[in-house]
Amino acid sequence: MAYIHAVFNRNHGNCIPLYTKISTIPPQPLVTRASLETLIGYFSERPLPNTRHLNDDWNHMSRVVNILTAGILAVGSSLATAAFAEQRPVVVELFTSQGCSSCPPADEILSELRERDDVIAIALHVDYWDYIGWKDEFGNPDHAVRQRAYAARAGRRSIYTPQMIVNGQTDIVGAKPMVLSKAIAKHKEAGVRMELDVQRTEDGVKISGTVPTGNVTAMEVTLLHVIPSRVSTITRGENRSKTIEYTNIAESLTTAAEWDGQSPLSLSLDVSRDDPLVVLVQEAGAGPIVAAARVD
Predict the structure, then answer these.
(1) Which site from 4, 48, 207, 237 is most exposed, i.e. has the minimal number of CB atoms within 10 Å?
(2) CA distance 174 to 235
(3) 4-9, Cβ contacts within 8 angstroms, sequence gap of 24 or more
(4) Is residue 244 within 8 Å of 103, Cβ to Cβ?
(5) What is the pLDDT of residues 140-169, one digit of tens each?
(6) Dihedral over alpha carbons 148, 126, 121, 69 (to 10 degrees)
(7) Is the entire prediction scored with pTM above 0.85?
């Protein structure tokens, strides 16, 4: 059985959601102010906000995230060379939702990443928050399936938004540009396990790759299209009255092929859409991403 865990703060008769997640563990009552602050602090790593000024806090936090993210992530970008970026881009997947009040700062971080040539940033909108008042126009149940697969692989018993997964391995909770910058740098330092080449053809795409080094196991070749940018005005739910720009929005996520990794990869696939295309070569069962490429 799945449980919805939620913490609310009552403010002049209104219940303001402070934290929500899905878990297989039954919720326990919180009876003290101290335990409430501890729980919220654990997941947000910031002090409990004064609810009388939540709107001011949101605007201030948004400005701070913009400034810090631009500086931290730009530094990482300046250290990468174009040749290195082509050989080993780092994949950052953001599981997000228009119905999640904690997600906009993470959406802004992902937007900053689109300027980097050494990162493939992907926004995978989930649909499991649609019931709380706003249906995410980009939400797809396949994205939640992928998120659950990551959780199962890592032994986690719950999923949540916002969550970033770096190269199929590093899990980052919430909007943390410094932690993300360090994770990207760490994965860039790892050796290149295979060369991947993706070329558009008249009627589709041609994918070729070398035999991976290291422990070769069953692989999956995943294809998805990304919408570069879309602005949405949200009128209901936790983000009501906000206008938000979303970037690199995932669509048409599919496993195009399975590959044993024992011989060079060679695929020719029909692709009808002209949107930017991302190809991921990943160890089967939501394992590490071995190689990735994007073609616009």
Answers:
(1) 4
(2) 23
(3) 7/36, 7/39, 7/40, 9/51
(4) no
(5) 999 999 999 999 999 999 999 999 999 999
(6) -110
(7) no
Q: Dump pLDDT digits (tens) for 17-65.
A: 444 445 445 554 443 333 333 333 333 333 333 333 434 444 444 544 4
pLDDT tens, residue by residue, 198-229: 999 988 999 999 999 988 899 999 999 999 99
CA atoms of 60 and 234, how far apart (whole Å) = 20
Q: What are phi and psi of 54, to 5 degrees?
A: -60, -40
d(CA 11, CA 15): 6
CA gap 198, 267 in Å, rounded: 10
